[in-house]
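Researcher: Can you fold this with magnesium ion in place?
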Amino acid sequence: MYDATYKIVIFGDAGCGKTTLTQRFLTNLFKSDSKMTIGVDFEVKSLEINGKKIKLQIWDFGGEERFRFLLPTYVRGANGALFMYDVTNYSSLAHIDDWLVVIRKELRAEDHFPVIVVGGKADLVDEREVTGDEGINIAKSRPVDGFIESSAKTGENVEETFEALARLMMQKSSLL
Ligand code: GDP
Ligand code: MG
């Protein structure tokens, strides 16, 4: 028995690391050969936070342009979201507003869910195009609820990312 089941959607440009982050969280493995996501996949993982059993349904959206028509269906019923960009690719962060419009436009204000901005591939220090401060500043000036940098390669902040979102969703549903 679960105290809550939450649907999480992950969105952001193709190649920024959404599938790899999800797989790392699920299996604790870094898969360097993640295939291009076709349409939408979803995965399930259980967490325990403050003695509450939480089931996360993680929907990984294939960020390709030709699948964007699926986005409204994908977002429907979501309880929380990760907006992911790649710290080695400035344009993936610059697209944040396009993505936020897409996910918010289908929603009534009362259905708004927490969104965390995730700067992925933090292990690639030599290829970085976005500093942590730039990421934080952009996140602070947008209607989002958090910011974190992570690496699916080293595992840094992978669990923390999903836990932080789980906590926000629990607060919203008065479980925390
Ligand atoms: P998606 O299109 O957003 O799902 O991106 P993928 O998860 O398919 O990742 C795109 C590429 O980035 C793949 O070659 C991954 O191996 C690589 N990648 C993903 N996450 C990381 C990371 O944390 N560090 C490094 N160095 N590479 C990563
Ligand atoms: Mg993918």
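Model: Folded with magnesium ion in place. Residues 74 and 81 are 11 Å apart (CA to CA).
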